């Protein structure tokens, strides 16, 4: 559960008007005029996103299930945890279970909610709910029509080295790895 952060100062911006600047099949961009704490006005443009889930699939032997996937905006292949968009009205845990099965073919018997992160607070309302999945059983993946990825395993020390060296730069995977390190050490 997220607690509301308060401040001694008035930091709140108030929406005066909003218009849809762009509507795609997946993302929408709003352009709002806001009143600032000092009474001035400003424009805020931001991406509306339905939210997503991230899965940390952990095998009994400590290996971690990962994906390699090409990401068009940065024109490169990334190492990532399995993840996917929450459908309208879909429970995030059900989405996590579906995404793990569709992308990797694996199912899990033990699911734990880890945390919610907001990965792009300056320009998007996107949130990601992170889950730890254990008790993994292999199955057949059912990728979306336009989805291509490679599934592989790594150890936590390998992942930490890849983060340190800049080989892993995906923020959801970095945060998930740091959480996993604390969980496995019994600190969180």
UniProtKB/TrEMBL annotation:
Molecular function per GO: hydrolase activity
InterPro entries in UniProt: NUDIX_hydrolase-like_dom_sf, NUDIX_hydrolase_CS, NUDIX_hydrolase_dom
UniProt xrefs under Pfam families: NUDIX (PF00293)
Catalytic activity: GDP-alpha-D-mannose + H2O = alpha-D-mannose 1-phosphate + GMP + 2 H(+)
Obligatory cofactor(s): Mg(2+)
Superkingdom per UniProt: Bacteria
Stored PROSITE patterns: NUDIX, NUDIX_BOX
Keywords for the protein's UniProt record, in alphabetical order: Hydrolase
Domain Nudix hydrolase: 45-176
PANTHER family for this protein: NUDIX HYDROLASE DOMAIN-CONTAINING PROTEIN (PTHR11839:SF18), UDP/ADP-SUGAR PYROPHOSPHATASE (PTHR11839)
Annotated family: Belongs to the Nudix hydrolase family. NudK subfamily.
Protein name, per record: GDP-mannose pyrophosphatase
Species annotation: Undibacterium hunanense
Lineage: Bacteria, Pseudomonadati, Pseudomonadota, Betaproteobacteria, Burkholderiales
């Amino acid at each position: 559960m997220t607690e509301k952060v308060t401040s001694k100062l008035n930091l709140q911006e108030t929406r005066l008007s909003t218009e849809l600047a762009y509507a795609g099949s997946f993302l929408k961009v709003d352009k709002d005029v806001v009143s600032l704490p000092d009474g001035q006005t400003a424009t805020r443009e931001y991406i509306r996103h339905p939210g997503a889930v991230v899965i940390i699939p952990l095998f009994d032997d400590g290996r971690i299930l990962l994906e390699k996937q090409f990401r068009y905006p940065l024109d490169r292949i990334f190492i990532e945890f399995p993840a996917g968009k929450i459908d309208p009205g879909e429970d995030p845990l059900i989405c996590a279970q579906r995404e793990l099965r569709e992308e990797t073919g694996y199912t899990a018997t033990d699911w734990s909610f880890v945390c919610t992160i907001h990965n792009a607070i300056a320009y998007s309302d996107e949130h990601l709910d992170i889950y730890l999945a254990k008790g993994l059983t292999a199955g057949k993946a059912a990728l979306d029509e336009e989805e291509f990825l490679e599934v592989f395993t790594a150890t936590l020390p390998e992942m930490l080295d890849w983060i340190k060296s800049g080989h892993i730069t995906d923020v959801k995977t970095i945060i998930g790895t740091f959480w996993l390190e604390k969980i496995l050490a019994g600190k969180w």
